[in-house]
Amino acid sequence: MSGDIKKTINELHIYEKKLLQELEKNSNATPEEIAENTGMNIKSVMSAAGSLAAKEIIDVEKDIDEIISLTDDGKSYAEFGLPERRILDVLVAEEEIPMGELAAKSEIDKKDTGIAIGWLNRKHWAKVDKGIIKITDVGIESAKKLGDDEKLLKHLFETESVIKDRLNDDLLEGFKLLNNRKNLLDAKKNTSHSFNILSKGQDILDEGFTIKQQATQLTHQQLKDEEWKNLEYRPYDINAEAPTVFPGKEHPLRRIIEEIREIFLNLGFTESNRPVLDSAFWNFDSLFQPQDHAAREMQDTFYVKNPLTCDLPDDENLVAKTANVHENGGDTGSLGWQYKWDEDVARQSVLRTHTTGVSTKYLYENEPPFKMFSVGRVFRRETITYKHLPEFHQVEGIVGAPGISYQNLLGTLEEFYKKLGFEVRFRPAYFPYTYLSTECEVYLEDKGAWIELGGSGMFRPEVLEPLGIDVPVLAFGLGIERLAMIRYDISDIRMLYKSDIKWLRELPITNGIDL
Questions:
Q1: Residues 265 and 118 reside in one and the same domain
Q2: Model pTM greater than 0.85?
Q3: What is the pLDDT along the chain (515 residues), one digit of tens a residue?
Q4: Are residues 451 and 476 in the same domain?
Q5: Residue 13 and residue 212: Cα distance in Å, rounded?
Q6: Which of 179, 186, 202, 477 has the most CB atoms at less than 10 Å from its CB?
Q7: Measuring CA to CA, which residue among 106, 101, 56, 53 is closest to residue 83?
Q8: Separation between Cα atoms, residue 464 and residue 322, nearest integer Å
Q9: What is the DSSP letter of 276?
Q10: 125, 138 in Cβ contact below 8 A?
Q11: Residues 316, 403 within the same domain
Q12: Number of neighbouring beta carbons within 10 Å of residue 289
């Protein structure tokens, strides 16, 4: 026991020793008295007290008193009476007063008459009948005695201030009444602290200690002059817990986006992007999506009023070929959708519902071979739930070159998901603008289940032919928020957009995946 106490004493700061020494002399000493006797400032006294309390050497008790006093208006009411009391005094003599004569007869300001009438009614001292204020039986009885609020006014006027917790029941009821009125009472909180020596603290005092200055930081001059050899050093506990540090770091969603971007760049892809506001032509028509498709309805797509429309591509040949593909399949051998394609529908302004419009624009502007990826926000008219948002992120990649096949698609996907740290498998699927099409499922070991994470396929000839692409093109993509939910094991997608500082702080800085 003695060894532990000596170790504790050696680790005490000089301020902690001074505080303990003062409490030994006077166990009831206040922080202010300790500061005066030791030459320490209040901040140092309280800091030392907090440190000693954390070590279970002393106990710190905190008392908060609410001090009540009168404002200038309150003092005026205490001296001359509440407005309703002054009216009541007149009513006792006259029994009733016309509303128009109220201020003059009671000698109160006109601005106070409305307040006074309200309190006369609330206290049941008087009632208003056809513009006449008449005294009640309660008013006649109350004229002979002070109300609880008036008693408190008088008490505060005489004593200047009181501690709220020390008011008796009558004065406490008076406080409740006066506190409902504006600018009559002034309430301030006074905080006081007291210290109690615990058994460990008493053991330290029984053991005894000396107070002398200790070095906690060496200067260049002390090292140069070798003065450090003669200094007394305060021991440090190397086993003490260090404070938790929360370093700055990327938001988890941004971290995943950058991870995906790095994977694509390392695989030799080029990044491309377009504005989130786009024409229906690039968002829908260039992908061979019919103009009466359900996905184009207002229930699924955000249409924009300003600008109401977007320009079609300058290339009339591109627009004509797109129209032909929709109407009769063009030169692809397809029958198309067998309807009359409408340029006005294609001009509609939309918030992009996917990033695939970036891919078709890239195909139109570039010659194969190419490897391109894009990352961006997309928008759909979804009801916000634990798994759906109207705004989220999507990433996709395309590869186009002579001889590219469905097998290349599967190989590319396997490599991509491997880089993300997943085992992947494929199953047949349907997407409007790809054929063959497949969905990608990744295996989650902790859940023992396969989870669908992305879609892919080979672009249909009806997409490629109007864009002037005569080589196969594979395409694949996924929703980044869904990946984030799997990565960070969260069941509610909204967590990614909440300002939950505790969750954000506790997330590891790295995800442990080798890129």
A1: no
A2: no
A3: 566 888 888 888 889 999 999 999 988 889 999 999 989 999 999 999 999 999 999 999 988 888 999 999 889 888 888 888 888 888 888 888 888 777 788 888 887 788 888 888 888 888 888 888 888 888 888 888 888 888 888 998 888 888 888 888 888 888 888 888 888 888 888 888 889 999 998 989 988 888 877 777 788 888 888 888 887 777 777 777 778 888 888 899 999 999 999 999 999 999 999 999 999 999 999 999 999 888 888 778 999 999 999 999 999 999 999 999 999 999 999 999 999 999 999 999 999 999 999 999 999 999 999 999 999 999 999 888 888 889 999 999 999 999 999 999 999 999 999 998 888 999 999 988 999 999 999 988 888 889 888 899 999 999 999 999 999 999 999 999 988 888 888 889 999 988 888 888 888 766 544 33
A4: yes
A5: 10
A6: 477
A7: 106
A8: 10
A9: S
A10: yes
A11: yes
A12: 20
Q: Identify the three-state secondary structure at position 236.
A: coil
DSSP string, 320-343: HHHHHHHHH-TTTT-----S---H
Among candidates 463, 317, 473, which has minimal Cα distance to 400?
473
Quick one: three-class SS letters along 419-475?
A: HCCCCEEEEECCECCEEEEEEEEEEECCCCEEEEEEEEEEECHHHHHHHCCCCCEEE
- Distances in Å between the Cα of 338 and the Cα atoms of 330, 399, 431, 434, 500 are 11, 30, 19, 19, 52
- Measured CA distances, 311 to 45, 124, 155, 283, 452 (Å): 73, 75, 80, 13, 37
- Same-domain pairing of 59 and 99: no
CA distance 112 to 118: 10
Cis before 307 (ω within 30): yes
Contact 210, 192 (CB under 8 A): no
| DSSP string over 244-261 | P-------HHHHHHHHHH
Domain for residue 39, yes or no?
Answer: yes
The neighbour count for residue 60, using CB atoms within 10 Å, is 15
CA-to-CA distance for 395 and 265, rounded, in angstroms? 13
Q: Residue 496, SS3? A: helix
Domain edge (last residue) among 185, 210, 233: 185
40 vs 156: CA distance, rounded Å:
37
Does 513 reside within a domain?
no
Please check whether residues 133 and 236 belong to one and the same domain: no
For the chain, the domain total comes to: 3
- State in Å, rounded, how far the first CA of the chain is from the last one: 55
